[in-house]
Amino acid sequence: MSNLLDNHLLIYILLFAGMIGFSLLTNALFLKFVRTLGIRKMDGDTIIRWGPQSKPAIGGLGFYILFLFAVAGNAVLFDPNQFFLNKEFTGLLLCTTMGFIIGLADDAYDTKPLLKLMGQILCGLILIATGNEIHLFQAAWMNHLMTILWVVGIMNSINMLDNMDAISSIVSIFILIACIWVMGQETDYIGNLYFMVILGGIASLLGFLWFNWHPSRMYMGDTGSQFLGALLSLISILYLWNYRLPAIGQTHDLLMISRNIVLVALAFTMTLADTTVVVVNRLIKGKSPFVGGKDHTTHHLALLGLSDRQVALVFILFSMISISLVLIIAHIGNAWSWLYTLVFGSYFLAIVAAFFTMTHLSSKRLSTDKIQETI
After folding, report:
1. Helices 140-161 and 113-129, interaxial angle, to 10°?
2. Phi and psi dihedrals of 251, rounded to 5?
3. Cα–Cα distance between 359 and 92 in angstroms, integer?
4. 3-state DSSP assignment of residue 187
5. Span 122-145, mean pLDDT?
6. Could you tell me the residue ranges of all domains in the chain?
């Protein structure tokens, strides 16, 4: 038994290393031959991007190729006969492919926001149709609505966070690490299709990060952010939202529901905090939350004097803290109490409050500097 586990571990290590190498190679080739994907002819792109230079948004192509590579690798090595009989995984395949197509179309043709929203809603409906919905509630329609809102929200949240070098890549890597850890508490890794998919996702992001770290040579673009949003939304439904909850239709314990909500909030702390702060600030100022701008938490950290690399390091630090708390929650498991909900939930709220305060300090400093320049 020990030899069998050692052999599988060696296979996964070699596959992981191979996928990182494959990611580096594909991104290098795309960078050499694809120069215009995701670059707008108008100035709209520079409104969202922090840097003044337009760069090809081709990272998502590598993400999707490595995703297919991971799926094929698992089918060949571990599950050659049952792959296409898995309805739930078919949902993941269709959902992520739809996300990839939505993003690719937007990078290539700058599609209308309504069309993108319709595609994101379709991703949520695909998950529901294939049995991959959130089941926090006994009422099916509430679970379906929650699933659609979550999928649309995360696909947009990851897209919004892709506004400065390395940020979305870093956050996504840590979310996948959280999911893979929680998965390990509930099921065996060996031959697990989702484990291979998550491993491939982390490998593709690490390979991409080599080109996306400041000063970046490429962006992931909507092709990458929409694919990642679809992938992260489903993986988080399986291993975070539905963590140790009873089957659909059975009685749900409010205490356990609170645990899972906190679990999701901590795994997605950085992206949820950024999106919440940006949306609230824009609404306060009477601006549309759906129009891009240089008002994200990353931008405000830079305005307060941090370099782009230091901003990325800040996100790494807080992502590490958040994921460490996820690991603690997974260890606590069913020995949960309302005190834990209060303590761990307070951490998430503290991050949101800190980001909100930081953006106002930055805006106030910027306004003061402008006033002084006119004197």
Report:
1. 130
2. -65, 135
3. 36
4. coil
5. 92
6. 2-374
Instruction: Give the C-alpha distances (Å, rounded to integers) separating 182 from 50, 239, 317.
Output: 34, 6, 20
d(CA 323, CA 181): 10
Q: What is the pLDDT of residues 322-346, one digit of tens each?
A: 999 999 999 898 899 999 999 999 9
pLDDT band at 118 (very low <50, low <70, confident <90, very high): very high
> Angle CA(14)–CA(16)–CA(20) in degrees, nearest 5?
115
57: helix, strand or coil: strand
Reported as a single tens digit per residue, the pLDDT across 263-294 is 999 999 999 999 999 999 888 888 877 777 78
Kindly tell me the number of DSSP H helices and DSSP E strands found in the chain. Answer: 14, 0
pLDDT at 203 over 60: yes
pTM of the model: 0.90
Non-local (6+) Cβ contacts of 157 within 8 A are 229, 268, 271, 272, 274, 275
Handedness of CA 9, 97, 151, 313 (dihedral sign): positive
| Cα 106–chain centre separation | 18
**DSSP conformation class of 216:** P
Whole-number Å distance between alpha carbons of 23 and 66: 7
Lookup: tokens for 353:
């409050």
State the number of CA atoms in the 13 A half-sphere of 144 facing the CB.
9
Say how many C-beta atoms besides its own lie within 10 A of residue 344's C-beta: 22
- Helices 308-332 and 167-186, packing angle to 10 deg: 10
C-alpha 97: how far from its chain's center? 16
pLDDT confidence of residue 82: 56
Kindly provide the b/e burial profile for residues 64-74, where b requires at least 16 CB atoms within 10 angstroms of the residue's own CB: bbbbebbbebb
